[in-house]
Design goal:
The chain has 3 helices and no strands. By secondary structure, the protein is an all-alpha fold.
Length: 117
């Protein structure tokens, strides 16, 4: 039974690490702040979830497991709020999302706009 727990634990640890690496690559490849928020949420939920689940299987029913559950709950409660706050701050700063027809990327509203005179 212990070997099954070790195998499951390593599976979840490796899966969570893989999601963290994939999310980090997505973070580097995305063109603007709004699309970069998606891989960050993948890292926060799937990466963190897999790693903490793997650590929970290693820890068993101990005080360490209770602490890991508290950490997971805090991350799951605060991460969506922080992501939403970042998107709202970028929007209020005037950073526009990059569109398919916009080859220059996101820019600040009011800059480089032709004048009406």
């Amino acid at each position: 039974m212990e070997m099954v727990l070790d195998i499951l634990s390593w599976f979840f640890l490796l899966a969570g690490s893989a999601f963290c690496l994939i999310g980090a690559l997505g973070l580097l490849r995305m063109p603007d702040v709004y699309t970069r928020l998606h891989p960050v949420s993948v890292i926060e939920t799937l990466g963190m979830g897999g790693i903490i689940l793997g650590l929970l299987l290693q820890a068993g029913f101990t005080l360490v497991a209770a602490k890991l559950i508290i950490i997971a709950a805090l991350i799951l409660l605060t991460a969506p709020v922080a992501t939403h706050a970042l998107a709202q701050a970028a929007l209020h700063a005037g950073i526009l999302p990059k569109l398919d027809h916009d080859k220059t990327g996101g820019h600040i509203a009011g800059e480089d706009e032709p004048s009406n005179s």
